[in-house]
Amino acid sequence: MEIPTSSLFSLSLVLLFFFVLATSADVHENFVQCLTSHSQNATSISQVIYTPNNSSYTSILDFSIRNLRFLTPETPKPVVIITPSHESHIQVAIICARNHGLQIRIRSGGHDFEGLSYVSHVPFCILDLINYRSVSVDAESSTAWVKSGATIGELYYSIAEKSKTLAFPAGICPTVGVGGHFSGGGYGMILRKFGLAADNVIDARIIDVNGGILDRESMGEDLFWAIRGGAGGSFGVVIAWKIKLVPVPSIVTVFTVSRTLEQNATMLLHRWQYIADKIDNDLVIITDITRVNSSEEGNKTVQVSFISLFLGRVDELFPLMQKNFPELGLVKEDCREMSWIESTVYIAGFSSGTSLDVLLDRTPDPRISFKGKLDYVKEPISEIGLEGLWKRFNEEEGAAGRILTIPYGGKMSEIPESEIPFPHRAGNIYHIAYFAILDEGVEFSNRYVDWTRRLYSYMAPYVSKSPREAYANYRDLDLGQNNDKGNTSYAQASIWGVKYFKNNFKRLVHVKTMVDPSNFFRHEQSIPAVSAWGKKRGN
């Protein structure tokens, strides 16, 4: 009897499905067996291994997913999650992942814009550093050691426990993990005075592709250079950072002044561009731009909030504002004096009187879905150009829109482009980031992604060119990505790499080739190793 072709095809699909399931099961069982057999303490490591059969697997996976676009049934899931509590757990994970052909995704806080710290389209495991997060502050030497799983909030809180006049120039969002933040550069509210987080890293500990633990001296200056701004997931697992703390006054001043288009927001933002990177280095004024309800019932408008931190008292700030930005109309009643640690809570958007303990909460509220993109602005945008920007907020998707601008200048302009891989220094007035953001429970459809792309396209005439620069910590796969199998050419990777790192990209590839020639540590925008393809191209 002849069997119909359609039946044979269906049977083949069923057999393939069971083969994939069996293969996947074999991979995770063999990988877990490798972890326990190679560990010095099998009981210890078994307590930090989570497979899909484990009742805590889903909660561990979901807890540090900070972009709900990548928390769907269709999102690829890891074969195993490891939450190391000891460096030996990380060493074993690297060795076993290599032996069993698994990619490693390294998750610190889970804020990767494209989910690359917990998503892959090839078989993978997650090294989740949530339990590897201690902070040790030495106020006397103005230094600290912080493990990569700590959040910015936990770091700030630990500093404040030891000193009211020491700080660190890291980011605004307290739930961001320091591992990824430091790896890509890391900007915050005191960048004009002290530079980036990565500019203030003075030592580090990294576990390399062979499982070896290296510090600054043993890793060498090339690798130490690369991990401070070359972005995470390319060179090894940086497990801890030694940072130089910076002095701040016991009292600082903050203010937020919001203006709508009807209150001359366009003129104010235009004027801000001429002073934001040139005023006193102790003063940073960022802007937060959103669509809001107009005073006219039923209408919408755009609101620009000018949010500031000044390293000093209001009586020192006020003359500076009167001289440099009188148009804003700042009055002393707009200003609040507080400690630096209190300012981190204020700038993060928490309401007045919120306890400092909020810095220790790793769970953002609300959880969100988002798409983000970023540009660098080197010449002031005209008022006409800004008005064109507001039109994009009038579109339906503009309700989810948000734009943030962060001024540079000061210390940022003094540091050479090649000092660390982060190259965006002198010549940049500010960076401008575009977001579409929806709260949990609201479907984030592709039309919101498309809105950010249209906005990005509109901004092309007003931002940096050749290359159109981007920031590695604001990862954007629209810029280009590597091949899944890891055989990406230098030319292909340069499409996105030069945007992030400019001329530093070539040195990053050189370092990568030295320390990880087989390209084991890789993801969609990791630094490629030329040895993986160089012989074919004669490089």
Q: Can you offer a commentary on this structure?
A:
33% of the residues lie in helices and 20% in strands. The chain has 18 helices and 18 strands. The protein has helices at 5-38, 42-46, 57-63, 87-99, 152-162, 178-184, 191-194, 216-219, 221-227, 265-275, 314-324, 340-347, 383-393, 411-414, 446-458, 490-501, 504-515, 534-537, and strands at 49-50, 80-82, 103-107, 124-128, 135-138, 143-147, 166-167, 201-207, 213-214, 237-244, 246-247, 252-260, 283-293, 300-310, 335-338, 368-377, 401-407, 430-439. α1 runs antiparallel to α4.
Break the fold down into its secondary structure elements and pairings.
Layout: H1 5-38, H2 42-46, E1 49-50, H3 57-63, E2 80-82, H4 87-99, E3 103-107, E4 124-128, E5 135-138, E6 143-147, H5 152-162, E7 166-167, H6 178-184, H7 191-194, E8 201-207, E9 213-214, H8 216-219, H9 221-227, E10 237-244, E11 246-247, E12 252-260, H10 265-275, E13 283-293, E14 300-310, H11 314-324, E15 335-338, H12 340-347, E16 368-377, H13 383-393, E17 401-407, H14 411-414, E18 430-439, H15 446-458, H16 490-501, H17 504-515, H18 534-537
Parallel strand pairs: 2-4, 3-4
Antiparallel strand pairs: 1-2, 5-6, 6-10, 7-11, 8-9, 8-10, 12-14, 12-15, 13-14, 13-17, 16-18, 17-18
Helix pairs in contact: 1-4
